[in-house]
């Protein structure tokens, strides 16, 4: 702790010297440079003005030493250290000067340029977020599924309590005999792979002459808290694969897992018994999944191996940690001035 305090005092002394140089118009590099990827302090006003430069440097100095102290605290288990660093960063981001009007020169300048109109718009955004119950990054009314989002033609060919399966209309006169079944993550929406015609994996696959099916999972509520991983594997993935086989007449399908969908797909590959859905999957592929998501390890092919994950998911559902209805943005990203 003494060593950490000594480092802090050294940085504070350099910060004081930097402030004097700035006040006298002398060149002086920032004691703690901002991360080039940090857009909060990208505006030149944060460096051009000695006052605002000092505000920025005080925040960056204290933030860095707070995180270093948490990282170097002895006697902490790795898990507790990571947790402390995570929540410490969340609070430090929330307390950044960019998140408050009177300590944000960019927001103040915008308010003066617009005659206060930017403040009115910002307050209206605040009231709308308050009514919605969450901080929204976009205007939800700007996106309409089937109109300017997820416009690739298709139809729902299966609906059960867990999911819907969408079968897309082919765009080529001839299609491959074996269909593609895309297993999406249940913490996201299926149209992440079909945003717009120019940003659509689904449309690209159709244009290559492939027959495409995709899962669209139901957002779980309190009534689904008793579901287990086995339910998602059997009533979700297995059901989707078997449906694609029946509709296409093919003996096998090409299964593609996106994000945690790849992990779920891998957990039943190649399957412990002949009843496994992936017994009929020719090429399981994981996109944005752990490297082992396409392995054939026996350790992940037993039904019992899914029980720990099922128990963890059930606990997280009970405490509300898993929900696709609510997205929690990072303070450093969502609290940029709305002015």
Describe this structure in words.
With 339 residues, the protein is of the alpha/beta class. The protein folds into two domains: 2-113, no CATH class; 144-318, Rossmann fold, CATH 3.40.50. Helix content is 42%, strand content 10%. It contains eleven helices and eight strands. The strands form two sheets. Strands 1-2-6-3-7-8 form a six-stranded mixed beta sheet, sandwiched between helices. A two-stranded antiparallel ribbon has the order 4-5. The radius of gyration is 26 Å and the shape is elongated.
Walk me through the topology.
Blueprint: H1 2-23, H2 45-48, H3 50-72, H4 78-94, H5 105-113, H6 117-132, E1 154-159, E2 163-168, E3 180-183, E4 194-196, E5 199-200, H7 201-207, E6 212-217, H8 229-248, E7 254-258, H9 260-267, E8 285-287, H10 307-318, H11 331-334
Parallel strand pairs: 3-6, 3-7, 7-8
Antiparallel strand pairs: 1-2, 2-6, 4-5
Helix pairs in contact: 1-3, 3-4
What is the fold named in CATH at topology level of the largest domain? Rossmann fold
Number of strands: 8
SSE order, one letter for each helix or strand: HHHHHHEEEEEHEHEHEHH
Q: What is the overall number of helices?
A: 11
Oligomer: single chain
Helical proportion, percent range: 40-55%
End-to-end Cα distance, whole Å, is 41 Å
- Unreliable stretches (pLDDT < 50, length at least 5) are 271-279, 286-306, 316-329, 334-339
What is the name of the CATH superfamily of the largest domain? Alpha/Beta hydrolase fold, catalytic domain
What is the spatial order of strands in the main beta sheet?
1-2-6-3-7-8
Structural class, judged by helices and strands?
A: alpha/beta
> What is the CATH architecture assignment of the largest domain?
3-Layer(aba) Sandwich
